[in-house]
Amino acid sequence: MWNTEIKSVAPLLPRKYTKADIIALLKYYYPHEWQSVESIYKYYCTKDKYLKRRFGKSRYNMSEPKLLIQRVSAFKKIFSESYKCAHWNAYSEKSCVDSSVKLWEARKCKIDRINSKIEIALSKTQQVTPLFINQLIGLYERKNTTQKDKVYILLELKKYYCEKIIQFFFRLNDTELNKQLREEAFFHLQSFNFNPRLRKQQFMQVHTKNKKRKCYLKEVYPYEEYNIPQNPDELEYRIENSKEQKIKSFDYFISHSSKDSKEVQQLIYDENQRGKNVFCDWINDVDYLKRHLLCAATLKVIEERMKQSKALIFVQSENSLKSIWCKYELNYFRRLNRPIYVVDKKSIINDIFNLSKLEDNWFVDSNYKNLALIAGEGIN
């Protein structure tokens, strides 16, 4: 790796260049490839740290990307005295600029395409580290956790984007014996362009001396599968009976109109940057809360999510003021006697995210639940 990339940036180097110049050019013209190597480096550093703590010595000892690249033959060639001399004599600023424009034209479309891919993946997550992340990972790693529960736990982890979760998925991709779970980790990492390698089942190793467990891990566990029924009844059951749902908590519940999703996404990103974990139905429960599947279980799920939230943010707009769903959520949260904040859609558009207490009780209606169910019946 990197020989072709280094050769492509060589004509862009200044007359007198350093190692830092080459690395800077590679980071600029091949940003995602560089990030991929940095992610792998972090992963193996984490593994070595654990091995050294547990067994007294590290195993992988991967060099930093900026040192690793110096071992590439093309890199060594560029720093040979003969190449430096030839580059100095042949250097032309116009040629350097032309080469820069040509390479950027060749690279821009691919970089934009990958950026778009990553942006889509990020829009389906919250970019924050939830307080319950260690508990979720701990539940997954228990010996008695079933295939079904592991599938549900992975589904919850995929809703967040942070360093700890990405490293956990790297570990699953590397060591998970179950084919379904390993592929889940692989495809999730791929969606963020991390470029992992999917290990084949025949190369997975079982580390245990217990014959019975070894037989299970080699012949049964790798081929177990579970497919989640995607409906509100299933989520209602999980909330009432599963640990991965009971440990969840949110700083804010976002009450909004689906027509304002773009502005809501901006608000969620801003709150994530402040370290706040937000509940938004089309991110946190998109697999279950389908509007065309609306029933009493749907309302039950939404109510449970509000109970798990410390406060509610109402995104005020022409759309949300007319929304039966928002009215329902505001009424229920008022019954919980917890803080309700409001932010205007126009403020979000102007990058102003200041929250204020909702003082006006325009939404109060004792028949709010029936109104929501009636509205749901009108959905095709």
Text of the CATH class of the largest domain: Alpha Beta
- Overall structural domain count: 3
Oligomer: single chain
CATH architecture of the largest domain: 3-Layer(aba) Sandwich
The overall pLDDT, averaged over residues, is 90
Q: How are helices and strands ordered from N to C? A: HHHHHHHHHHHHHHEHEHHEHHEHEH
CATH topology of the largest domain: Rossmann fold
Coarse shape: flat
| Helical content (DSSP H or I, runs of 4+) | 55-70%
Poorly predicted tracts of residues: none
Protein name: Toll/interleukin-1 receptor domain-containing protein
Keywords: Receptor
Pfam family, one: ThsB_TIR
InterPro entries: ThsB__TIR-like_domain (IPR015032), TIR_dom (IPR000157), Toll_tir_struct_dom_sf (IPR035897)
Secondary-structure topology with pairs:
Blueprint: H1 3-9, H2 19-29, H3 31-55, H4 65-68, H5 73-78, H6 81-90, H7 93-123, H8 133-141, H9 147-157, H10 163-175, H11 179-191, H12 211-219, H13 232-241, H14 243-246, E1 250-255, H15 261-273, E2 278-279, H16 281-284, H17 296-307, E3 309-316, H18 318-322, H19 324-336, E4 340-344, H20 345-349, E5 356-357, H21 368-377
Parallel strand pairs: 1-2, 1-3, 3-4
Antiparallel strand pairs: 4-5
Domain TIR: 248-375
Protein name: Toll/interleukin-1 receptor domain-containing protein
Pfam families: ThsB_TIR
